[in-house]
Design goal:
This protein has helices at about 90-105, 180-195, 235-245, 300-315, 330-335, 350-365, 375-380, 400-410, 420-430; strands spanning about 10, 15, 20-25, 30-35, 40-50, 55-65, 130-135, 140, 155-160, 160, 165-170, 210-215, 220-230, 250-260, 270-275, 280-285, 285-290, 320-325, 345-350, 370-375, 390, 415-420, 435-445, 455-460. It is α/β, with parallel strands linked by helices. The chain has three domains: about 1-65, Beta Barrel (OB fold (Dihydrolipoamide Acetyltransferase, E2P)); about 90-125 and about 300-460, Vaccinia Virus protein VP39 (Rossmann fold, 3-Layer(aba) Sandwich); about 130-280, OB fold (Dihydrolipoamide Acetyltransferase, E2P) (Beta Barrel). It is globular, with a radius of gyration of 23 Å. Bound molecules: S-adenosylmethionine. S-adenosylmethionine binds near residues 296, 332, 347 and 377.
Length: about 475
């Protein structure tokens, strides 16, 4: 059968593909179906047709897969925040393990690597300690809101719908964050709507209110509210900070990040502390961390404990090693490893994260860590010591090829590669495979109900 763009086709979903999409075959042609899971029978519309593959969207669910469960969230199927709420959690864990294994084999071209079953997240709802909600002057309407009278389509504060960068869902409740976050979100929405300042248009790039970022401390049940605006205007923003601090004793910090950049990133060019503190404190295991608004911190605090336990196990420290921790963020991995190492050197590009890391060492009584601020691409060349162990935890894009080259020159005995993107992890390990064997990989689920997966890989220098 010939498949054409726009056509409706009946498909039996046989597997899961990159990006969490269902995979079906039509006369050998791979069709990737958004919103479908294995064993679904669907009628889908072809939205893209290439020589090697096609992409489709579910039009009608003819026979649901036995792996489907009723989603708890009203936005499920529309919201880009979590796309797998309708898939039973055990299957999510299984598909994530499979995805890591396939990436290593197909992208890294590395065979016979043991990939262990995914370690689950202790909580599968309310687990996110950080949420970012976007403001928009264009609201994405749910099907039952279409044609409803009195719906204001010129305002939204919420999460994105995949495929539309400028339309945003007016999210009233997100189950990935603790419940209080939803009350704060609603109060901020009410305030913004009543204010004279306009919301930011993601296409027009005009307007004032841009993002709302909420951080939650699991250990202390405290909150940070970060309001991101396009300009500095304390007269408009300050009353919101006072309102929130008065209403919620759990909020201990309200800051305002200001950015005139067009990029849709909730990081300011500078920050103003509006009320309370500039940081929030949380714990991973026995260690305490101060986190400021723009510093990276693992978004699932309870699962981070399981992740760090695996990192420590794979590092296999004896107390004599020098460890280099690349992409060190707020220093959390360095601090968790410090008591097993002679010294840990962290490297990180965000200045405020390094300031947090230094403070965090002090708070935890750790004296054998040092941190270097800067781009690893330049800074790594300046380290002359040969570390026995390297921890590498890059952002989604993975390592720059010059960094891979420098790591190979430094030739540590062991590398623990930590990654939130199996594809770039596999690519980077593929570049190192002549010199390093991949002994085992442990996927750790930090992101339930999404297809994202964190992995820890243990690499050892060949010929040791
Ligand atoms: C996935 S996070 C890891 C953070 C930390 N290891 C942890 O577990 O909390 C990646 C970190 O890499 C930093 N980063 C990104 N590009 C960088 C670069 N070129 N040089 C140094 N650090 C970089 C980011 O700021 C971020 O803190």
């Amino acid at each position: 059968m010939k498949v054409k763009k726009g056509q409706l086709v009946e498909l039996e979903i046989s597997g899961i593909a990159f990006g969490g999409r269902g995979l079906a075959r039509v006369d050998g042609l791979a069709v990737f179906v958004d919103g479908a899971v294995p064993l679904d029978l669907v009628v889908a519309r072809i939205v893209k047709k290439k020589k090697q593959y096609a992409e489709a969207r579910v039009h009608t669910l003819v026979k649901p897969s036995p792996f489907r469960i009723p989603p708890d969230c009203m936005y499920s199927g529309f919201c880009g925040g979590c796309k797998w709420q309708f898939l039973n959690y055990h299957k999510q864990l299984e598909y994530k393990q499979q995805h890591v294994q396939e990436s290593i084999e197909r992208i890294g071209l590395i065979r016979d690597v043991p990939v262990h079953p995914t370690i689950s997240s202790p909580a599968i709802f309310g687990y996110r300690n950080k949420m970012e909600f976007s403001c928009s002057d264009r609201r994405w309407l749910l099907p039952d809101e279409m044609g409803e009278e009195g719906v204001d389509i010129s305002f939204a504060l919420g999460l994105h719908v995949p495929g539309t960068f400028y339309k945003v869902l007016d999210t009233h409740s997100c189950l990935l964050q603790p419940e209080l976050g939803n009350h704060i979100l609603d109060d901020v929405r009410t305030f913004i709507k009543a204010s004279d300042a306009p919301v930011y248009g993601l296409r027009s790039h005009t307007g004032f209110w841009r993002f709302l970022m909420l951080r939650h401390s699991v250990a202390y049940d405290q909150w940070m509210v970060n309001i991101i605006t396009a300009k500095e205007d304390l007269e408009t923003v300050q009353p919101l900070a006072f309102l929130l601090m008065d209403k919620y004793p759990q909020i201990i910090s309200v800051v305002n990040n200001i950015t005139s950049r067009k990029a849709g990133i909730a990081v300011g060019e500078y920050e103003i502390q509006l009320s309370g503190r500039s940081c929030i404190k949380d714990k991973i295991g026995d260690f305490e961390f101060e986190i400021s608004a723009n510093s990276f911190f693992q978004t699932n605090t309870l699962a981070a404990r399981r992740l760090y336990h695996t990192i420590k196990e794979y590092a296999g420290l004896s107390g004599r090693e020098t460890v280099v921790d690349l992409y060190s963020g707020t220093g959390s991995i360095a601090i968790c490893l410090a008591d097993g190492a002679k010294k840990v050197i962290g490297m990180e590009i965000v200045e405020s994260a390094v300031a947090d890391a230094v403070k965090n060492c002090r708070i935890n009584g750790v004296s054998n860590c040092q941190f270097i601020v800067g781009d690893i691409k330049e800074e790594l060349a300046r380290i002359m010591d040969r570390p026995e162990i390297m921890i590498i935890d890059p952002p989604r894009a993975g390592m720059h090829k010059d960094v891979v080259k420098r790591v190979l020159e430094m030739a540590p005995e062991r590398i623990v590669y930590v990654s939130c993107n199996p594809a770039t992890m596999a690519r980077d390990m593929g570049m190192m495979k002549e010199s390093y064997g991949v002994l085992e990989v442990q996927p750790v689920d930090m992101f339930p109900h999404t297809y994202h997966i964190e992995s820890v890989a243990k690499l050892e220098k060949r010929g040791q």
